[in-house]
Amino acid sequence: MPGRAVSAKERDLIEKAHRVLPGGGFGNLNRDIVVQRGLGSRVWDVSGNEYVDLILGGGPMIVGHAHPEVVAAVREQLEHGSTFFASNEYGILLAEEIVKAVPCAEKVRFSATGSEASFYALRVARAYRKRDKILKFEGGFHGLNDYVLMNTTPAEPGQYPRAIPDSAGIPLSVADLVLIAPFNDIETTSAIIECHHDELGAVIVEPFQRLLAPVPGFLQGLREVTELYGIPLIFDEVVTGFRLAYGGAQEYYGVTPDICTLGKAVAGGYPLSAVAGRDEIMAHFDPAMEAGDYVHQAATLSGNPVAAVAGLATLDILKREGTYEKLFATGHRVKDSLQRLLDEAEIPARVAGEAVCFDVYFTDGEITDYRSTLGADKAALGRFNDLLLERGVLKAASKMYVSTAHTGDDVSQTVEAFASVVDELKTITASRGSAPPVTRRRP
């Protein structure tokens, strides 16, 4: 069986990591692997092992690692300074490009992380609406601020709309300001909004929730009910912005929110995120706004020129003719091949998501919302991930991303690895003397 050779140097680094870092890592990829460098669609660990990279830095590297145009732009800017705590040319130009590209964007305010962006998006929406509560969706992830780290991965989901904190350290009182609704269920969601509309400052949603595509009519219905009651609708597009289309999920699904958050692809791998939205809402960030309506927001690295030039170079690549057609074609080859191999092996599994971002659930049930994912075999997914790593394909615990840098050879190697892994999973199942476990959707 293939395996990963680990050098003495990498073993030493892993030991040091477990001494000085909680859990032995940065809180991202929970595996004992130390990545040394990346180029295009590939990364190499400290031991020299090479991998087809389906993590892509958690999403930012949509044009691949160390793209020469991005590197050149960053190198040139570094010679002129890294950050100024003042407006700079490239931050202004990046904001202008966002306004041109994103349907809801009339004004832009920069921050450094996706968690910050969702936090400030909610704050400015509450300032505009003059209401305190927010509604989010079960299973939705909007970063790590207290208001949105609710019901993202509840082991035992409660009754809607009760909020349950996902992390220790979140004051229980914050949960009283958050309502929870089921993704892809517009009837239940509308009923919750109708009941609480006069308390709600905002509704926040990932239009493509983790790996779950919206069912027809869901986003349209959400837009209609929030418009009916004048509640700002926030699309968290940290993942989908400039990935599903140049205009993001708003363009791809044809629904325009009032506010969106952006990150990952918009900064080409550097620390930058953004809140973008309608002028009358974004005006609350303007210091000229009267006291009581002004939303204070500032950060040391907001709109820094290094990230801004990386973002501009990345967006210039993405908006070239044929880019998204190629990106989706690559993704479909990988995604569809995985589902075909699993079907041929008669392993109950669903490959869920869009062609540019997807993963597998080991279940025979339909996957439409968070609760329908709970019946999936997580141990089987972990084994799948480990076997892929041994075969030179690196993926996260959940999600596979494709980039413009992935080639036909990358696709072929990945599909060959899938075939080998699926064959081993089938052999393991057969050796146990039973059919593959069938996991069904919980009620």
Key features?
four-stranded mixed beta sheet; 443 residues; 14 helices; single chain; disordered C terminus
Describe it for me?
By secondary structure, the chain is α/β, with parallel strands linked by helices. 38% of the residues lie in helices and 14% in strands. It is built from 14 helices and 14 strands. The protein has helices at residues 8-20, 68-78, 89-101, 114-129, 172-175, 186-196, 218-229, 248-253, 279-282, 305-318, 323-344, 370-373, 378-390, 408-431; strands at residues 35-39, 42-45, 50-53, 107-111, 133-137, 178-181, 200-205, 233-237, 259-262, 273-277, 350-354, 357-361, 393-394, 400-401. It has a 7-stranded mixed beta sheet, with helices on both faces. The protein has a 4-stranded mixed beta sheet with strand order 1-2-3-13. Strands 11-12-14 form a 3-stranded antiparallel beta sheet, covered by helices on one side. The radius of gyration is 22 Å and the shape is globular. The two termini are 39 Å apart. Residues 434-443 have low confidence and may be disordered.
Please report the total strand number as a whole number: 14
- Give the integer mean of the pLDDT values: 94
Biggest pleated-sheet summary: 7 strands, mixed
Q: Which sequence of strands runs across the widest sheet?
A: 4-10-9-8-7-5-6
Q: Measured on Cα atoms, how large is the radius of gyration?
A: 22 Å
How much helix is in the residues? 25-40%
